[in-house]
Structure formats: structure tokens, C-alpha cells
Design a protein that fits this description.
Oligomer: single chain
Shape: globular
Radius of gyration: 25 Å
Structural class: alpha+beta
Distance between the termini: 40 Å
Number of helices: 20
Length: about 525
């Protein structure tokens, strides 16, 4: 026994200093992973072994778990903040204790030391920031997951001085990205093993695209592509690049004075949020269905509104941060448009043909994920009568049927991951403004327009589609009108939309069942 203890002690004497030494000289990549895994385990254990008797006790459980999660994300910084930003958009499922705390990650991430930022600029541009720019403010105006932004001025070829935004990659990111993604992979594998739900099919695609995001040369290319895709929309603006100042770690664009969509109350006072959401939904649909272009990170800190400088009396949406974008294949673009057309015309034969070709075994569940509400072949898609029983049935069916839906995950188009992420963030933003626009209606219209069916006359499918759109628009208008009248006459009445109904029912279900979640049987 003593011999084994001595061996163990000798091993510890070597490995512990080696661990901390490696961690110290490599931007805390090991300790950050340990903290993340420990936090995930602690939160999971708290839910598993706690037994709250009242909603107040359950709210306290959510609050302390959310505090632990956000504390870990802020401590670890980097890609962990990006993971948290994705969670913040799930306000239709996560309890408010989570979503309120996660909002801090959208635009208040920790900043990096000034000397490190200045060193990166000097290394990449070949001269100091104060030599490269006419003026450079060393105090960052914003900090995100992997970068921070400084305001500066440059002198153009014609001698004029231009205000610019200088986006600089945080210095620790290159060393941390592989380790952070590895921790993400471990958590996905662990959840898949524990709960029997397929998650790891998406790991490779997420890893590949997040590696691209930390290369600002790729973001510059996607920014130019975005300007090209949406060049015909005067209501949407993409800031121009200054390529002479752009590198793998530095990105310089024109400075835009505008209000971020994260400032909900100010936007409501000074602008027309309904028109802004209409612009965003239409642009997203056009980019996806007509051009195969996906902006997968349109959270409210990346979207701004300003008075249009070229059109008096008009407003203009400004879209930022093209780091997490994707150009889909032509085949996916066409087939995904067919999916939306089939959903709205309830053409189950076409829907099943497309999704089965993607290795998806449950067409109705897949359609539900696209609409983000229960879909059934037995009920028109324009119906707004969603019952509590249907919501619960849909939620209960997810775990039971998700693996059947993903029956052949090797064939599932990886574009689905980022299309879903972008659409989810837009849904969340729309919800934060009271769901003023009908996103499903807009997406369906753009999908059918991209298929260019109008040239051959009016088919039966086209007539069914147009009728469905009309009914859906009328249903949405009627709901908004009734709620508006009630809110006007009864000041205590809170305007409710279909999004509200679904959110409250989903949250109620989660509140009632989250603390009873058990480890599922493994195949």
C-alpha cells in the first residue's frame, strides 16, 4: 500500500505542476475546460436531486443555475460567450431566469487589455494604431465573444477623413478555440450518451464554421457577399469595408451611428420596429431562398436601425458581423424552398420526398421545427388554434421521435444547423417586439418566389399556397387588431400573440417537468 501511495504521490508531484504550467502558458485552456465541465455537472446535479415544491422554489432553482452558467461563461469568455448568445435566443423555451441573465452576453462581454490589442494591430498592419489611423480611441465601444470594437478615423485617397469601426480579434482566441470546441464536443457526446438524443452529428460542422469565424479575412469576404446579395434593398445596409486595413485579426468598416435592436424601448419610441422586422425577415428569406446566403448570427446586438441618410423620412436597418455566415449548395437552396412550399400547401408527398432524401424520417416533426410550432397534415398551417394539449404532445414527441427524425444523420444537410440558428435568432428578436410580423408567412412567400412558379400559369398547388397565405395573413391581422383594441381600452390588458401563447405553455411545461428529468435509457 505504501509503495502505491508513494507512486501516486510522485505522479501527482509531476502532473500537478505540469498541468498548471501548461495552463498558465496557454491562456488557461485547461482550467477553463475544467470549470465548464464542473459547472455543467453541478447544474445537472442540482436539477436532478432538487425537489422544489412550489413555483417560487423552482424559480430559485432556475435563478441559481442561471447565475452559475452565466458566471462560467463570462469567466471563460471567448467561444463560451458565443454559446451563451445562442442560448439567449431560446426565450420561447428557457425560463426567464435564464434569458434575462444571458442578455448581458450580447454586447457586454469582457474586454482585453489595451496593450495586447495595440500589439495585434501593430503586428498585422505593420505600424502602430496611432500611425495607421488619424485617430484611434483605445477605449473599446463594444466587446463581443471573440473580438472588441474601437472607434477610429482613417484618411481616404481623396484626402477626406472617414470615421471607422476597428474590430480586433481578442489575443487569446487563437490558442483557445481548439480547446473550447473540444469541451463543446465532450458535452455533446456526454448528453447524447446520457439522454440518448443524437447531438454529435452537428459537431464537425460547428467546429469547421467557428474556425472560419475567427479568421477575419473570411468575414471580409462574407461582408462583401452580403452587400452584393442585398444590394437591391435600400431599407437594409451593410457597412463598407476598407480592405487596406483588413487582415486575419483586424477588420475595419465604416462607422455607423445607429441604435441597436437590443435597446427595445428606445427602438419603440424612435423607430418603427414592425417595419424593421419586416425588412429583416424579407432579407433573410431572400438571401436564403434566392441566393443561398445565410447570416447565422443576427442577434439584436448585430442589428441596428438609423434614419436613412439617402431617403428623408425613411428608416434603414444596418446588419453587422458577417463572421458566422454560409453559402449553401444550390441543391439545398432549391430543396429547402420546396420544403416551405410543401408545408404551406400541405403537399405531404413533396415534403416527404425532400426530407427522406436528407435522411430525415419524420416529415411532420421536421416541419414543426421549421415553423417553430406544431405541424400536422390534418390541420391547415394557417390555423392559430394551438391547444395546450397539442403543445405538450409536441414537446413530449421531441425526445421520443428526434432520433427517428434523424434516422440517417450522415445525409442531413449541414446547412440546416446554421439556417436554424439564424431563423431562431430572428424569431427571438421578433418576439421581443411583440411578434409584429408573421415570419412563417414571409419565409413561405420568399421560398415560393425563388421557385419561380408564376411563369407557367396558376397550378392547383399555387392556388392552394396563395389561399393559405391569405388566410394566414388574415389570421395574423385579426389577432393583432383584437389585441390592439383591448390594449387600448384596457390599459392593464397585455397584448398576446400566438408566440406568447406558445411561450407561456412551453415554459409552463418546462417549469412543471424540468426538475423531474431523469437520465434516459441508452440503446
Amino acid at each position: 500500500m505504501g509503495r502505491w501511495m508513494r507512486r501516486f504521490g510522485g505522479l501527482a508531484a509531476v502532473s500537478v505542476p505540469a498541468f498548471f504550467g501548461f495552463d498558465w502558458f496557454n491562456d488557461q485552456v485547461l482550467s477553463r475546460g475544467v470549470v465548464a465541465l464542473y459547472t455543467a455537472g453541478r447544474v445537472s446535479a442540482d436539477y436532478k436531486f432538487s425537489d422544489p415544491k412550489t413555483l417560487e422554489e423552482l424559480s430559485e432553482l432556475h435563478a441559481r443555475s442561471a447565475d452559475r452558467l452565466v458566471s462560467m461563461l463570462l469567466r471563460n469568455e471567448g467561444l463560451f460567450i458565443k454559446f451563451g448568445q445562442a442560448l439567449s435566443s431560446l426565450n420561447h423555451v428557457l425560463p426567464p431566469e435564464y434569458t434575462k441573465r444571458l442578455q448581458v452576453l450580447l454586447d457586454q462581454a469582457p474586454t482585453s487589455p489595451t496593450d495586447q490589442i495595440m500589439r495585434i494591430i501593430a503586428e498585422d498592419l505593420g505600424r502602430s494604431a496611432h500611425e495607421a489611423f488619424v485617430e484611434f480611441d483605445e477605449t473599446p465601444v463594444a466587446a463581443a465573444s471573440i473580438a472588441q470594437v474601437h472607434r477610429a478615423k482613417i484618411r481616404l485617397a481623396d484626402g477626406t477623413v472617414q470615421d471607422v469601426a476597428v474590430k480586433v480579434l481578442k489575443p487569446r482566441i487563437p490558442n483557445q478555440v481548439w480547446w473550447d470546441l473540444t469541451v463543446h464536443d465532450i458535452i455533446c457526446y456526454g448528453l447524447e450518451y446520457a439522454f440518448g438524443i443524437k447531438l454529435t452529428w452537428s459537431v464537425h460542422t460547428i467546429r469547421e464554421n467557428l474556425y472560419r469565424e475567427v479568421n477575419f479575412a473570411v468575414e471580409a469576404d462574407y461582408t462583401d457577399l452580403g452587400r452584393e446579395v442585398w444590394a437591391g434593398r435600400p431599407d437594409l445596409y451593410i457597412p463598407r469595408l476598407y480592405r487596406d486595413y483588413c487582415t486575419r485579426r483586424v477588420l475595419v468598416t465604416e462607422w455607423i451611428d445607429a441604435v441597436k435592436m437590443i435597446e427595445v424601448e428606445r427602438i419603440k419610441r424612435e423607430f418603427d420596429p414592425k417595419a424593421a422586422m419586416q425588412t429583416l425577415m424579407e432579407a433573410y428569406g431572400e438571401g436564403l431562398f434566392s441566393k443561398g446566403f445565410v447570416h447565422a448570427d443576427p442577434h439584436p446586438a448585430n442589428v441596428m436601425i438609423r434614419k436613412d441618410p439617402a431617403r428623408p423620412g425613411k428608416q434603414q436597418v444596418v446588419l453587422l458581423d458577417f463572421g458566422l455566415c454560409m453559402k449553401t449548395s444550390e441543391e439545398f437552396r432549391h430543396n429547402y424552398a420546396r420544403v416551405w412550399r410543401a408545408i404551406f400547401t400541405q403537399d405531404m408527398a413533396e415534403l416527404e420526398e425532400v426530407v427522406k432524401g436528407w435522411g430525415i424520417g419524420d416529415a411532420e416533426l421536421f416541419a414543426s421545427f421549421q415553423l417553430q410550432k406544431p405541424f400536422s397534415r390534418s390541420r391547415p398551417v394557417h390555423s392559430t388554434a394551438i391547444t395546450k394539449a397539442e403543445i405538450r404532445q409536441f414537446q413530449n414527441s421531441i425526445k421520443a421521435n428526434i432520433n427517428r427524425m434523424l434516422e440517417d444523420d450522415e445525409r442531413i444537410p449541414r446547412e440546416i444547423i446554421f439556417v436554424g440558428r439564424g431563423a431562431q435568432m430572428l424569431r427571438s428578436m421578433n418576439k421581443s417586439y411583440g411578434a409584429p410580423v408573421n415570419r412563417a408567412n414571409i419565409f413561405a412567400a420568399k421560398a415560393v418566389a425563388s421557385l419561380d412558379e408564376g411563369k407557367g400559369g396558376w397550378s392547383t398547388a399555387m392556388l392552394r399556397y396563395e389561399a393559405t397565405l391569405l388566410l394566414l395573413a388574415l389570421a395574423h391581422w385579426w389577432t393583432q387588431t383584437v389585441n390592439g383594441v383591448l390594449a387600448y381600452w384596457f390599459t392593464s390588458y397585455r397584448v398576446s400573440t400566438l408566440e406568447d401563447v406558445m411561450e407561456e405553455r412551453e415554459k409552463s411545461f418546462v417549469l412543471q417537468h424540468s426538475h423531474r428529468m431523469e437520465i434516459g435509457e441508452r440503446d
